[in-house]
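Researcher: Please translate sequence to structure tokens.
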Amino acid sequence: MVLVRQCQFEFLIIYIITTELYDGLMKITFANFLTLLRIAAIPVVVICFYLQAENARPIAGLIFGFAAITDLLDGYVARKYGQTSRFGAFLDPVADKLMVAIVLVLLVQSDPGWYVDIIAVIIIGREITISALREWMATIGDRAKVAVSWSGKLKTTLQMFGIGFMVYRESILGFDVYAIGFSFLLLSAGMTLWSMFKYLEAAWPSMQKES
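Model: Translation complete:
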């Protein structure tokens, strides 16, 4: 009798957990699902990047490229089908920054060239600076002044293409894919600095105000 009650209790716990998970998943929109898929792709890229198997790097590059495409799709889907949400607005930039920062660290580790290190420092340093700036601007009610602009979106697109090509690494039809990716990443570093200065310029009047 005790065993039956224990089984019933365990079944009840499993039922409650399953129901909660199902309800949570049902609340996730397709746009948010695409963003979560981008985050889920990160550990897969890392694993493939370090595998010694043949074509592991190209596979990692393709997975990264697929994840980057979801970055273009999730915002479009959210706007097109009315799936915008606060959760999505929070999750999308987090997914982008995680993808870029983590895979940049992999590239720095695998490429002994100092130039990749400098670009990684610029990109990651800028993200930390602007994230802190937006957080501070939000506390004083001026966050709209440093909202994401077209330059920020272009910067992210260049980063995604550049990093994806560098991760892929192998030549295609005689084209040096790694060099092409590095060129995109170099352009994105320039856009990174320019957009950072534009955000700081927009926030400067608020910084000069007395508390």
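Researcher: Any highlights?
Model: The first helix runs from residue 2 to 27.
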